[in-house]
Task: structure prediction
Amino acid sequence: MKTNVGKADRVARVIIGVVILSLGFWFKSWLGLIGIVPIFTAAIGWCPAYLPFGINTCKTKKK
Result:
């Protein structure tokens, strides 16, 4: 697995994940656990949904 999630994308995923978890807690809904997915993908730096589309938000150093 190569990293395909960049720094800004990771920050956005953590924020979105925390918001979803918070809303789930606020409304007492198990659907809030979906917020774990963006937090997990931010933590490992790899998003399987990016593969079929060839998306890569990491900055690569060109030689």
